[in-house]
Structure formats: C-alpha cells, structure tokens
Automatic annotation (TrEMBL):
InterPro entries on file: YjdM (IPR004624), YjdM_C (IPR013988), YjdM_N (IPR013987)
Protein name: Alkylphosphonate utilization protein
Domain Protein YjdM N-terminal positions: 7-32
Pfam families given in the database record: YjdM (PF03831), Zn_Ribbon_YjdM (PF08274)
Length: 116
C-alpha cells in the first residue's frame, strides 16, 4: 500500500481509498484530495465582504458599523465610504489597506465592510 494518505483532520495513517474519496475510519472524515487542494487555495486567496461579495483591489467599500481606532479616540462611523482599497495579507485578519478621509491610512477587516 505505497499510495497511503493520512487524514487531513486527525492525521491518522489508516485512511483508505473508496471510489473517488478517501475515508478515515478513526474520525469518519471523507475527502477528495483533488478538490480539497484546489478549494484550500481558492478560499485563501479570495477576500469577501460582510455580505459574501468578492472584493478586489481598487473597489470602493462602505463601513457597516462604528469602528473604534485602536490607540486613539477616533471612531470610523458606520456608512463611511472608502475608495480605492488595496487587498493585503495583513496581521490579525486586517486584509484591507486604505485611506480614510479625516483619519489617514488604515487597515480594515473585510467582515466590517460591504462592497459599494
């Protein structure tokens, strides 16, 4: 059994091939290694707003709730429109870099904006 594969959930080495799927007898997880690899790369590279719309560089977004600016007394009000966003791989889930009028350069989380 030279083509054995380990389970991506529990790392068990007892997974077996059944038709088009691999099955783990220890945790019950079933997966297709071809679609699992492509789904993982698709999910990592796509940034979505609070409504599930795909965001891209240069889009305009609207902030959906009041956001406190950490280390400052400033607040970004809900409904603030942000133009020309840039998608990044920022820390702590802050995956949007932008400039907000009256505040300056900021990093935002995509879960707090909607596509305008």
């Amino acid at each position: 059994m030279s083509d054995a594969m380990s389970c991506p959930q529990c790392q068990s080495e007892h997974a077996y091939h059944d038709g088009s799927l691999w099955i783990c007898p220890e945790c019950g997880h079933e997966w297709n290694p071809d679609t699992a690899a492509s789904a993982a790369t698709d999910d990592d590279s796509v940034v979505r707003d609070a409504n599930g719309n795909v965001l891209a560089d240069g889009d305009s977004v609207t902030v959906i709730k009041d956001l406190k600016v950490k280390g400052s007394s400033l607040v970004i009000k809900g409904g603030t429109k942000v133009k020309s966003i840039r998608l990044t791989d920022g820390a702590n889930g802050h995956n949007i870099a932008c400039k907000i009028d009256g505040i300056g350069a900021m990093d935002l989380k995509s879960e707090f904006v909607k596509k305008a």
